[in-house]
From TrEMBL, chain A:
The keyword Membrane applies. The chain crosses the membrane at residues 21-40, 46-65, 187-207, 213-240, 349-371. This is Putative membrane protein. Pfam families: bPH_2. Coiled coil: none annotated. The keyword Transmembrane helix applies. Residues 67-145, 242-327, 395-476 form the YdbS-like PH domain. It comes from Halogeometricum limi. Residues 495-573 are annotated as: Disordered. Residues 497-508, 528-552 have a biased composition (Acidic residues). Residues 509-521, 558-573 have a biased composition (Basic and acidic residues). InterPro entries: UCP026631 (IPR014529), YdbS-like_PH (IPR005182). PANTHER family: TRANSMEMBRANE PROTEIN-RELATED, UPF0699 TRANSMEMBRANE PROTEIN YDBS. Keywords: Membrane, Transmembrane, Transmembrane helix.
Automatic annotation (TrEMBL), chain B:
Keywords: Membrane, Transmembrane, Transmembrane helix. Residues 63-141 form the YdbS-like PH domain. Pfam families: bPH_2. Signal peptide: none annotated. This is YdbS-like PH domain-containing protein. The chain crosses the membrane at residues 12-35, 41-61. The lineage of its organism: Archaea, Methanobacteriati, Methanobacteriota, Stenosarchaea group, Halobacteria.
């Protein structure tokens, strides 16, 4: 295949794009009086026009040179890119190392039929290579070809289109719910910064006698307004970002599309998926919805906003059953049977919350002492029962589970995350025990992966489990990784698609195939098993509902409590 | 379980001394310039001395808590005084191995080995206080083990 060039249309587009931003910056600077051009009299406008056209010529010349100097080629093993006007750069990227191929088109680009393509690899601090801009067809062709070449097909040989299957489509109702549940606090923040100067102005209109009342009312109005604005902003952002969201499975890739104004189109090879995260909050749990995040190592740390990073490949919202089914499509996890930390863990959380309440009370007390008399400083103490309840829930939502090919952890109440890590993706296993944890014979086992979201300190972790269990968990994880790697060498395995059943069995000691795993409802406590709905609705949630007395209806799978370690010598403290 | 070279305590005590000196120096300057009424003149010395003693005790405790082991398939580290940390680094996941010698380390003739993985905690795995050729030896050993385990597709 010969080397290819960017789309010729990219020249005028880039000129306009670059020129536009400079003109906008100039206009802004002039309008705000940041500086004034040193032009006076009749010659002024003329000089301005002359300068502008000179700049325009330079831009056009540069972009033309950029276009002429830029070429790329897809060889059987590499993507070769030659680029650079002043400094030349030849880059060869091994195809096997490409993690994601992302296509993005904004409104203008869609109008003229251009798109930007970004190739992400693991490591490095930025996108490994980007093509600005090629036609949309070419971009899609690249995405497809790359997937095909990675599977080892020959170049250019137009084999039949790989069968693609729509895994997920965000329908209007879900989009509406997503909008309704989204808050974007950035907008009120910016507004606050803008108008914070005018507060004193406004308050000066009110007579002093009304002071406190006005202040309280004003704060209340402001808070309500801020919440409303952030709600509307969040809804708009969510709809704009996730309009027309679709997840497609094509051969061994996951492809997504989304966006109302700017369309994003990306591909994630199954064998690059590092971690799957199911996220929800009390509201979503109550209404039966959840969010799914797919992590790869392709997005470099600190690149872009959190919203535009690895979470691009996320299902923003879907009913819990759909999310679980999707997870099982991507990674045949089965139904996790979470094991909670020992009950004594709750004491730790009670203590932790009580300390917070104590600090707040102390602050209130000193405020009463020094500033306002008669202020009920003991009011925060009323929260102590809440601390106990909070501790219980925190404990209840923690857990971990070792599956056949995956370790699954669950943490968090207000932002509950269920993380699914294939054993094959484990990088390191870290066991930490703080002084306080040691007192209760507890430990936290963190499973580090190369995922990009994990940088926020949200690695999959079995938090506050029994110390003895932590020791064995550490060894177990290491052993499972060893087995997974060995199995992987015999053929791709254990991660994603079910195209190598023989290897799945290799790891699967129970001898159950993946499909059995998915269709068979978990055994009930009394040994009966429920009828499985034939339309693919998972029976899991119902089951959990019936089975676990204190579990909420949307806890994934059943949860069994760990014995309280009384057999390990009681917990005297 | 391998221990570190005992001389590593010298390094840690040394760095404790350096930070105690810095804090003491700042305090000294503050006391000199502002001469606050309630603070006796010996405060900087006391603070620096206290910090140094604490740092020295911590250095010894840290040395006792440290241990590493090159197992069949992984590198295992144990460390931490207040928070005990145990890390398992499978050889398949090793990206590259460094050995480094800081200025303090060179004074006492020690070196460290740093193991990098593709994990989000990159260079979290460092074995300090290896005597002389120990660091190079460990590095070479880890390298050979990592190559032997063929971490083909580490990400």
């Amino acid at each position: 295949m010969p080397a290819r060039r960017l789309s010729p249309l990219s020249v005028p587009y880039r000129v306009v794009q670059r020129g536009g931003s400079i003109v906008a910056a100039l206009a802004f600077a002039l309008a705000t009086g940041g500086f004034s051009l040193p032009v006076v009299g009749l010659a002024g406008p003329l000089a301005l026009v002359g300068l502008a056209s000179l700049v325009a010529v330079v831009f056009v010349a540069y972009e033309l040179a950029y276009y002429r100097r830029f070429s790329y080629e897809l060889t059987p093993d590499t993507l070769d890119i030659e680029s650079g006007v002043f400094a030349r750069r030849n880059r060869e990227i091994p195809l096997r190392r490409v993690q994601n191929v992302d296509i993005s088109r904004n409104v203008l680009q869609r109008a003229v039929g251009l798109s930007a393509v970004a190739f992400e690899t693991a490591g490095g601090t930025e996108t490994e290579a980007s093509l600005r801009f090629v036609s949309f067809d070419e971009a899609k062709r690249l995405q497809r070809e790359l997937g095909r070449l990675k599977r080892g097909d020959a170049v250019g040989e137009e084999s039949e289109e790989p069968t693609s299957e729509t895994l997920f489509e965000l329908d209007g109702r879900e989009l509406a719910i997503l909008g309704a549940l989204s808050f974007d606090f950035r907008v009120p923040g910016v507004l606050f910064l803008f108008f914070s100067g005018s507060f004193t102005l406004v308050t000066s209109y009110f007579p002093d006698s009304m002071g406190p009342l006005v202040a309280v009312l004003g704060v209340a109005v402001l808070v309500v307004a801020a919440v409303l604005v952030s709600w509307v902003a969040g809804a708009v952002v969510a709809v704009v970002n996730y309009y027309g969201f679709r997840l497609v499975r094509s051969a061994d890739e996951l492809q997504y599309e989304r966006g109302l104004l700017q369309r994003y189109d990306g591909s994630i090879p199954f064998d690059k998926v590092q971690t799957l995260t199911i996220e929800d909050n009390p509201l979503k749990r109550w209404t039966g919805y959840a969010t799914l995040l797919v992590e790869t190592a392709g997005y470099a740390p600190g690149q872009g906003e959190s919203s535009s990073r690895g979470s691009e490949a996320a299902v923003p919202i879907a009913s819990r059953e759909r999310v679980e089914r999707l997870v099982n499509d991507v990674e045949p996890v089965g139904t996790p049977d979470f094991r909670r930390p020992p009950k004594r863990t709750r004491r730790r959380y009670v203590a932790r919350y009580s300390i917070v309440i104590g600090v707040v009370t102390a602050i209130a007390y000193s405020a009463e002492f020094f500033l306002v008399d008669g202020f009920p400083w003991y009011a925060p103490l009323a929260l102590l029962p809440v601390a106990a309840v909070g501790a219980h829930y925190k404990w209840k939502h923690r857990g971990y589970w070792l599956g056949e090919n995956h370790v699954v952890t669950r943490n968090g109440v207000f932002k509950r995350q269920v993380k699914v890590v294939p054993y094959y993706r484990i990088q390191t296993v870290i066991d930490t025990r703080t002084v306080f944890q040691r007192r209760l014979r507890l430990a936290t086992v963190t499973v580090d992966t190369a995922g990009s979201l994990s940088l926020g300190g949200q690695d999959a972790a079995a938090v506050d489990i029994d110390a003895a269990d932590a020791d064995s968990l550490r060894d177990e994880l290491e052993e499972r990784l060893r087995i997974a790697v060995a199995a992987h060498r015999q053929g791709r395995v254990g991660i994603g698609v079910d195209d190598e059943p023989q290897v799945t069995e290799l790891v699967d000691e129970g001898g159950r195939s993946r499909d059995d795993e998915r269709e068979a409802p978990p055994e009930n406590g009394d040994g009966t098993s429920e009828e499985t709905p034939t339309d693919g609705e998972d029976g899991d949630t119902d089951d959990a509902n019936e089975n676990a007395d204190d579990a909420d209806p949307f806890v994934w799978g059943e949860t069994r409590d760990e014995s309280d370690g009384s057999d390990r010598g009681g917990d005297e403290t | 379980m391998n221990r570190l070279d005992p001389r590593v305590q010298l390094i840690w005590v040394g760095s404790a001394a350096v930070s105690a000196l810095v804090v003491g120096g700042i305090l000294f300057a503050v006391v000199r310039v502002f001469s606050p009424p309630f603070v006796p003149a010996w405060t900087p010395y006391a603070v620096a001395g206290g910090l140094f003693v604490l740092g020295a005790l911590l250095a010894v405790a840290r040395y006792r808590a440290w241990g590493y082991e090159v197992r069949d398939d992984s590198l295992y580290l144990e460390r931490g005084v207040f928070t005990q940390v145990r890390t398992v680094v499978p050889f398949v996941r090793i990206q590259h191995v460094d050995s480094s010698r800081g200025p303090l380390e060179r004074v006492v003739g020690l070196a460290s080995t740093v193991v990098y993985t593709a994990g989000s905690r990159g260079a979290d795995v460092a074995v300090p206080g290896l005597a002389g050729d120990g660091a190079d030896e460990l590095r070479e050993r880890l390298k050979r083990l990592a190559i032997r385990s063929e971490g083909d597709d580490a990400v």
